[in-house]
Amino acid sequence: MTDIQKNIRENQDSKKEREKNSRIVEIKAMCIGAALILAGGAAGGYALNEVKAEREKAQAEAREQAEREKAADEQRKAMEEEEASKTPEEKKAEQIAAAKEEAKEEDKLQIGLSFDSFVIERWLRDRDMFVSTAQSLGAEVNVQVAGGVVEEQISQIEYFIKKKMDVIVVIPIDGNALYDVLKEAREMGIYIICYDRIVENVNADLYITIDNEKVGTLMGEALIQACPEGGNIFAINGSPTDRNVDEVVRGFNKAIEGSNLNVVYTEYCDNWMAELAGNYVTQGLEVTKDIVGVMCGNDDLASQAVKVLSENRLAGKVAVVAQDADLAACQRIVEGTQEMTVYKPIGQEANTAAEFAVALGKGEDITSGEGEYKAVETFNDGTYDIPYYKIDPIAVTAENMDKVIIDGGFHTREDVYLNIR
């Protein structure tokens, strides 16, 4: 609809509204008049004044409406004259410009970003940073969150396929369960990026993650340092369907090999459910309370582990290590109930992934292209060697909290030291 057509429609609507208001005033006047006849005397005089006031109000509104309509008519005529004065060349140029703008919107590179859930605090940061970077590079990002339900994530990826996304970036709930739908996406010519977690055997176009084995190594080294005399420890790992967990465990076991630390109780938390971590620590303490440390798959699991340790008067006496540098974990570290967390530069991971996604969508070679980032390493997904980009994690303790977390802008000093007086 053109501006002129819109203007005409508005005038018509305005006229209808004025007629409607006029009818309402007439009905009111009739009712008041009837009241005047019945009332008589002082009441009748009051009713008469009411009729007069209503009429004056209606007349004022009618004058204002007429002035608005007159101004609208003048504006419409001016627009018609301006339109009539344009040459055919000018009209054609405007049409071409409008078509180009519409095509520009349609031609934007489309990226589908699929999260398993937002239960883990860091994923909200990943989302915001990824979307911001991708948009700054001219792409549009459609974000879907599965809420930890595998079937929902499959359905959302099917939606991406239907919408003909150029690139799908996925944080899988269960890599094995997503194999078929991601294989279908690749067959449709859609690029696949496994973000932070691998989907095996699908031959993704890129796997970008934090160096998970090093995460485990840092956690093991922190426990050795916190417990120099050794002792018994619990290992409360993440989801058994997350291959990253295997890498973390491998790094952790290598780090404590040859030390005096003994893993006496091990469990895995399905779908990273923190409540399970609390249950498992409780069960472990029923076996033995003679422990010096607990390794947790992430800070969310550690929150429940520390809660149970506190209930057993062991918080601060048992060293707890985890990963993600969640705010609550950083607070526990400065308070003394958690020994360390592993900070993963998620800003770097998210921004780099967005850069790679846009490059892939444009058909660029990310392994030897001209972009700022290059995936020069490979990772075997079980069948294929795929492009791989890893980012180094950093161990965070009370000693370097300010330097890494606060000075780095990940959390504010006020928030980290909230409970320290």
Describe the structure.
- This protein is an alpha/beta fold.
- The chain has helices at residues 3-39, 41-85, 88-106, 122-136, 150-162, 179-187, 212-226, 243-256, 274-287, 299-311, 327-335, 346-361, 401-406, 413-416, and strands at 109-115, 139-145, 167-170, 191-195, 206-210, 231-237, 261-268, 293-296, 319-323, 340-343, 377-380, 385-391, 394-396.
- Helix 7 packs parallel to helix 8.
- It is extended.
- Residues 4-8 have low confidence and may be disordered.
Q: Which oligomeric form is depicted? A: single chain
Question: How large, in whole angstroms, is the Cα Rg?
Answer: 33 Å
Main sheet, how many strands, which sense, barrel? 7 strands, mixed
- Unreliable stretches (pLDDT < 50, length at least 5) are 4-8
Instruction: Give the helix tally.
Output: 14
Shape category: extended
Strand order of the largest sheet: 2-1-3-4-5-12-11
SSE-based structural type: alpha/beta
Cα distance spanning the termini: 64 Å
Strand segment tally: 13
Percent of residues in beta strands?
15-25%
- How would you spell out the order of helices and strands? HHHEHEHEHEEHEHEHEHEHEHEEEHH
